Amino acid sequence: MNYALLQETLQAFKFALDPTPAQEADLNRHAGAARWAFNWALARKIAAHREWRTRVDALTEGGLSERDARKKASASVRIPGQATIKKHLNQVKGDSRLDGEHPDGFHGPFLPCPWWHEVSTYAFQSAFYDADAAFKNWFDSLTGRRAGRAVGYPRFKKKGRARDSFRLHHDVKKPTIRPDGYRRLIMPRLGSVRIHDSTKRLSRLIAKGQAIVQSVTVSRGGNRWYASVLVKVTRDIPDKPTRAQTEHGTVGVDWGTSHLATLSQPLDPTNPASVHVDNPRHLNAATRQLAKAQRALSRTQRGSNRRTRAARRVGVIQHRIATRRATTIHQLTKQLACRFATVAVEDLNVTGMSASAKGTVEKPGRRVRQKAGLNRAILDASPGELRRQLTYKTSWYGSSLAVADRWLPSSKTCSACGTVKPTLPLAEREYHCTNCGLTIDRDLNAAINIARHAVPLVEGDVKARRSPVSPAREGRHGRAGRQTREGPPPPDGGSPRRE
Question: What pTM, to 2 d.p., does this model score?
């Protein structure tokens, strides 16, 4: 008998918006305000970081050691946080309602944002928090406290290149973000905006008291605006797999490009061919249309209106590809999480798999064009997204996730007797065992080995990145390389580390 545990989880409900022209202008205004606020906060942080570095250099030239100079400089220079930046902006921002809307009506020094009252204050506050997070992610990555690939020095957001997006919050006790019927969504300062989808699921959860809206993130994708409503949901989390999941047991998933996934047992028991999940190749399907749009973009002049329209057409095609890819991955991961007790996957190094083969000037690479095509196929199949979605969906539906070691020779090992071949070219699509005589599809053989050797994933079992820091170099925005590799003073006043 299964027992469900009531747990609070965060879940996002994403809706496509259908705003009026006036509402679309408001959305653009909020996105621009959030971008400006992020750049304003980041500029304050970078200025403080440069001042700290200048003082450290002056103290070291005066005879202090690097360690002592950092401690002394950190006592007088701190990187401003969200609260400090917000307080400073409130003192200098001005107000166009009092000073007049024409620049000649202003008096005294330049006022940074006298239009602040035209947008929700939450667009500013969330941007300040994002700037804090960007600086913290870089510092934690630099010092090895953040897992994953290295995070670069924070950069300013440029209009036309950065994604148009902003985030709004509200008081959960007096909600101002809520569905308005099944076809509209109410947001602060934006009013009731019509949506293409239906909010029936979200509305019913809220009506039952099982969901509390936390925030909404509005973003532009292609030629559409989307609202992602973050909700704290009280859901029934099964403490163990269902009877049907237990009967199906463990399924090994061998990710690939020929097939999106090959399973150790059929996804549908009545259809043996469902061990192979077809790869839709969304990028290949749109290659001709995308190439035509990109050639048209390359023929336009920089800064022209025609270039803006051509870039918008390219963005629409790219967004359509990404949406279809995400839909395919969501459908597959939910079926795996709901039908099996354990889902076993490989621990793939996607960054290394999709690295360029061009090499260096001294040692140029071989078959670079072929490797570039393979890299596109790898990224189009989204192995990292597949793993990410399985991580949280298995916890929702009572199943569990198991991960096979990265160095497991799953393709070279015989799934019947365990014999390991020394080599196995990619051209060989069938596995022939010389020891027991087994002949089996190469990917199916790998999936069976993954299901057999995968180890259940322990929650929170993530190691921080400890790789060495690359040599200093000139930054992209004119900042010296020494500054881009130096850590800022931490919040507690200690000295930054340099690795």
Answer: 0.82
